[in-house]
Amino acid sequence: MTRARAAALARRAGGVLALAVVAGALHFVLRDLSLAALEAAVLHQSPWRLLACLALTVASYGCLALYDLVGVRAAAPGRVCTRLALLAGASSAAIANTLGLPAVSGSAVRAHLYLRAGLSGGEVAHVVSMAWLSLVAGNLTMLAGAELFRAAAGPDRTVHAMLGGALASLLLLWLGWLSRGPREVALGRWRLPMPSAALAWRLMLLGALESGTAVGALYVLLPADLMPPFEVFAVGCIASVLLGVASSAPGGVGVFEASMTAMLGGRGRPDLLAALLLYRLLYNVLPFVLAVSALGLRSIRHRVLRPAI
Q1: Residue 251: left (phi > 0), alpha (psi -120 to 50), or beta?
Q2: For a disulfide at 178, which of 20, 88, 135, 197, Cβ 3.0-4.6 Å?
Q3: Is residue 276 domain-resident?
Q4: Going by C-beta distance under 8 Å and a sequence separation of 6 or more, which residues neighbour residue 195?
């Protein structure tokens, strides 16, 4: 068997496995629910909670857009306008969150926009790397804070203190390493310049804010009796997102809902599934539609105006 054929078979097997995982997850979530009860729960969701979810969604995507603004100013200062950087950051996140495979779909959107703006492939890779660095550092900061807060306010203090302390120590060591001068990570011919310690600290805070608002957008929709403390929910929500990404399902659909349902103990609860569906609509579908529309309009405008330039 040739290497290409083996790779093709592996992709097909992976696709079949992903479909099986999604089907099993959806069966777990939907088995004990009726469509009528779900519809009633959706219609009875508080408008104020929906507005709060929408506001937190806007804040989250605003932070995601700023990732790219920071990245282009570090990778190609003065060569990309602010509006384009913000569009690339927000639209790439919206498309990646909905289609899945964020390393591929999000990077493709950024490459489409930045290559047209005159950046080289290496500069685009630098921007993408900075955005991922911000996301990872922000999530680690968020998790460290949540675990340390749980250690101070709840049971099992030793375990949470150890986890939070380990994450915080890792971040502090990283900042200390960066503070000793210009740094870069090298893998063969690939080079990734690291930000300064001051910039890394700002990226950590920005990433933690993005992570907190993204988690909060779902938290405000939860049924009151299923609401754990926010710091507990944040850890479980981030873990559910990672499971969804690992499943390779588009946007982690099914897997995210199943893991959240299991974590909150809400199987068979139409009000919980209504909250998850509304979150999908406001945090994933709506930004995706807006992103595709904005990119489509930009492409049409570019084609119309280009002959006149």
Answers
A1: left
A2: 197
A3: yes
A4: 74, 130, 133, 178, 203
The whole domain housing 154 covers: 35-308
CA distance 113 to 298: 10
Q: What is the largest CA-CA distance in the chain?
A: 68
Helix (H) / strand (E) element for 186: namely: strand 184-187
Give 10-residue mean pLDDT values along the chain (309 residues).
Answer: 56 54 56 75 90 96 91 84 92 88 81 87 84 86 86 74 89 88 73 81 90 94 90 87 76 81 84 91 94 89 64
Confirm whether 57 is domain-assigned: yes
User: Given the structure tokens 């009875």, which residue do they identify?
Assistant: 44
Residue 100: count of CB within 10 angstroms of its CB: 19
Number of domain units in the chain: 1
Query: Looking at the domain assignment, is residue 75 inside a domain?
Result: yes
Q: What pLDDT score was predicted for residue 156?
A: 67
Instruction: Report phi then psi at 175, rounded to 5.
Output: -65, -40
193 DSSP β-pair partners: 184
Strand partners, 184: 193
Contact by Cβ (8 Å): 176, 170? no
pTM: 0.85
| Assigned token pair, 12 | 């097909």
Distance CA 75, CA 227 (A): 42
pLDDT, position 307: 54
Which amino acid, residue 256? F
Residue 188, number of CB atoms within 10 A of its CB: 5
